[in-house]
Amino acid sequence: MPTTPSPNAARRSERSRRAIFDAALALVGEVGYPRLTIEGIAARAGVGKQTIYRWWPSKAAVLLDAFTEGAEGYGEALPDTGDLAADLKYVLRATCDEFNSPAFQAPYRALAAAGAADEELSGAFVARLMEPGFAVYGDRLRAAQEAGQIDPDADPRILTEMLLSPFSQRWLMRTGELTHAYTDTLVDLVLRAVRTGD
Amino acid sequence: MPTTPSPNAARRSERSRRAIFDAALALVGEVGYPRLTIEGIAARAGVGKQTIYRWWPSKAAVLLDAFTEGAEGYGEALPDTGDLAADLKYVLRATCDEFNSPAFQAPYRALAAAGAADEELSGAFVARLMEPGFAVYGDRLRAAQEAGQIDPDADPRILTEMLLSPFSQRWLMRTGELTHAYTDTLVDLVLRAVRTGD
DNA sequence: ACGTATACGAGACGACCCGTCTCGTCCGAG
DNA sequence: CTCGGACGAGACGGGTCGTCTCGTATACGT
């Protein structure tokens, strides 16, 4: 489901759609989000401006669809080896590498920034990119609660935020490096707060 | 120190400077950051555009100075009553109320969003608005470490991030409400991770 | 298989804002 | 008092916006 489909989607050109996504992702990496323009995307994609305006309300919506299209598999479950700390560290290390990769950085950062400023966009950004990730951590933490490994009274949502928010905040505002040592420390600290037997 | 003072600052019109700040803060609340323009600020302030371009490099820089001017007292130390949990909860509750107030919201959110997208701006934003806040929590946590109240091996910086990042992330991306109950929970969880006697 | 509807590429259009510049005025430092 | 420089005002070319209007090409309905 694109953001605002009004014309007849059956007649839509798949070729143009892909060209627009490719152009948007390439351009946001080359010139940055503020200088990303609809005209520029259209020209690079070999497409009329109207074709973009027909299907998307803004450059942010184009980028969100383009990025979502290219980032499948964000909704997979965490491994559950029984060792909660190891599972969390493993996935957080992978996330760390992803956020350090340039191809991921530019569009994701642009969308996060645009979402922070625009209430409507932030809803779509959160629902389509952030929440699926949150849910995966929440599920794994609930499983650990049922296994009696962590405090059953702790709110998995808040624990997830304590794991991911320091991480994303560092990255978004560039207040520190994202390293495996850092994410390991986060996991250890959060789990020390909710270990059972206190 | 403004962002880029090149002409003779002694001859500068204080009257215009204030009018520009007032106009920028009012407009960002009325039309939002993306539709905030230098021309608009100049017109509202009754000022020539050149007067703005003479003293600031961008609308973000104007807004950062305007906001900083209006937000004195962000560098004060936390109270130290000896009860670490109570001190942290007290200040975090106050911060919570501040972030929920509309006059604070619009410019701060605009600056955070612009900083996320622009590397140079994020440096200034972090240094002038975020780090002073971080330092205050770090100091209070170090004092608690010296008093033997919390684990001396824990990194105060990371603990500060675990307190503040979930908070600001919720606010920035609108992923949840900011309530006193929420901030209290954060304090309790973080302190459980580093309480002494384990 | 054909006819028709409609999305398509291309680009013109007025509106807005950008950042620079040029005026003539006014004010403050020396 | 003098005078240099910041001031308010606004003209200017350039770029992007979002809308529109072409003629073309293509996929659907019968």
From TrEMBL, chains A, B:
Tell me which residues make up the HTH tetR-type domain.
14-74
Classification via Pfam families:
TetR_C_11, TetR_N
Q: Record's superkingdom?
A: Bacteria
**Residues annotated to bind DNA:** 37-56
Q: Does the keyword Transcription regulation apply?
A: yes
Which keywords does this Swiss-Prot/TrEMBL entry list? DNA-binding, Transcription, Transcription regulation
InterPro entries named in the record = Homeodomain-like_sf, HTH-type_TetR-like_transc_reg, HTH_TetR, Tet_transcr_reg_TetR-rel_C_sf, TetR_C
| Gene3D superfamilies xrefs | Homeodomain-like, Tetracycline Repressor, domain 2
Please tell me whether the keyword rRNA-binding is annotated for this protein.
no
Spell out the protein name for this chain.
Answer: TetR/AcrR family transcriptional regulator
In which organism is this protein found?
A: Streptomyces ramulosus
